[in-house]
Amino acid sequence: MKVLIVESNPDLGRVWQRHLERQGAEVTLVDSQEAAILALYGTPFEVIILDLVLESGSALAVADFANYRRPDARVIFVTNTTFFSDGSIFAHSSNACAYVQSNTPPEDLAAMVEHYAAGR
């Protein structure tokens, strides 16, 4: 299972990365739109964990590019804001499979990744 994490907060990204690696996932952690696009060129990820509010770049641009370059990849959007809390993210991103808060327990996020990767 190959997972891309796009998270501006390196500490949070590493917590998620460690939990997924303990489950046997191969995880790439990046912190910007540019780094995510470069990663998507080279690796067929099954799941992308994508912070909705990136410090550098646009999460929707990453999701859009992933939909083009890796159409089978599912995107789990995470956020610490109420932006898109109405569920409209699913109308904006056809590859979105989940929308959760950044403070979701890492083990719950890892279980979601495993679930969505299994369906690919």
Descriptive account of the structure:
This protein is of the alpha/beta class and 120 residues long. The chain has a single domain, classed as Response regulator (Rossmann fold), CATH 3.40.50.2300. The chain is 42% helix and 22% strand. The chain contains five helices and five strands; from the N terminus they run βαβαβαβαβα. It has helices at residues 10-22, 33-42, 59-69, 89-92, 106-118; strands at 2-6, 26-30, 47-51, 74-79, 96-101. A five-stranded parallel beta sheet has the order 2-1-3-4-5, with helices on both faces. The longest helix is centred in the first third of the chain and has 13 residues, at 10-22. The model has no long low-confidence stretch (mean pLDDT 88). The modification 4-aspartylphosphate is found at residue 51. Residues 2-117 form the Response regulatory domain.
CATH superfamily: Response regulator
How many helices does DSSP assign?
5
Radius of gyration equals 13 Å
Give me the CATH fold name: Rossmann fold
User: What is the CATH first-level class name?
Assistant: Alpha Beta
Query: Spans with pLDDT under 50 lasting ≥5 residues?
Result: none
Question: What sort of overall outline do the alpha carbons produce when their principal axes are compared?
Answer: globular
